[in-house]
Amino acid sequence: MFEIVKDGGWMMIPIILCSIVAMAIIGERLWSLQRKRIIPAELVAYIWQLHRDGKLDDTAVRRIKLSSPLGRILAAGLSNRRHGREIMKTSIEEVGRQVAHELERYLTALGSIAAITPLLGLLGTVGGIIRVFSDIAVGGMGDATLLSAGISEALICTASGLAVAIPSLFFHRHFERLVDEHVLRLEEEALRLIDIMQGNREAD
Which of 12, 18, 86, 148 has a CA 20 to 30 Å removed from the CA of 50? Predict the structure, then answer.
């Protein structure tokens, strides 16, 4: 592996750094975007139970807020539950935008890596080809070793750039779709809570 990296030339350094950052982002997002961490099951039902039992006080609301992103959104509505449906909805929407932004954390960086690494590989390819032609200009076509080294550098950089870019692009698209699904589900749960708390819907 070290020999391959060495043969790829100095452009392999930023490609390897990009691969490390991409793996870190992918691992972090796979952990953070789990549905059970974002949208705990039966949270709305739990809140309704607390409300019916008269236990939905400020301490309970704070506990709900710290439990998950959904809890944070619902807590914003619960804090304004005595001010009517529109105030509840407005406060939920404000916090919801913040939560949606946090769910998209690092995705721009991952998308940038997916776009940049093929260009880095291409730059390494161009550098290798330039070296090949420089060697030809100096020594002619007789030294096959010099020619093969330059061509190898070009191909290794291209392959390495694509090897980092392809999974980065895949996971970037996957996480974007996952965030969209989570945001939609968060909106549904928030609206369900508003309807229940304002008496416009029976608890499921």
Answer: 86
Q: What is the 3-state secondary structure (H, E, C) of the chain?
A: CHHHHHHHCCCHHHHHHHHHHHHHHHHHHHHHCCHHHHCCCCHHHHHHHHHHCCCCCHHHHHHHHHHCHHHHHHHHHHCCHHHCHHHHHHHHHHHHHHHHHHHCCCHHHHHHHHHHHHHHHHHHHHHHHHHHHHHHHHHCCCCHHHHHHHHHHHHHHHHHHHHHHHHHHHHHHHHHHHHHHHHHHHHHHHHHHHHHHCCCCCCC
Quote the domain boundaries for residue 61. 2-197
Give residue-wise pLDDT tens across range 13-62.
Answer: 899 999 999 999 999 999 999 999 999 988 888 888 888 888 888 888 89
Within-domain flag for 100: yes
> Between these two residues, 44 and 111, which has the higher pLDDT value?
111
Domain count, the chain: 1
pLDDT digits (tens, 9 = 90+) for 137-175: 776 665 666 666 667 777 888 889 999 999 999 999 999
Contacts of 155 (CB under 8 A, 6+ apart): 125, 128
How much is the CA Rg of the chain, to the nearest whole Å? 27
What is the residue type of 116?
I
In Å, how far are 13, 32, 118, 161, 164 from 19, measured between CA atoms? Answer: 10, 20, 12, 9, 6
- Residue 204 belongs to a domain: no
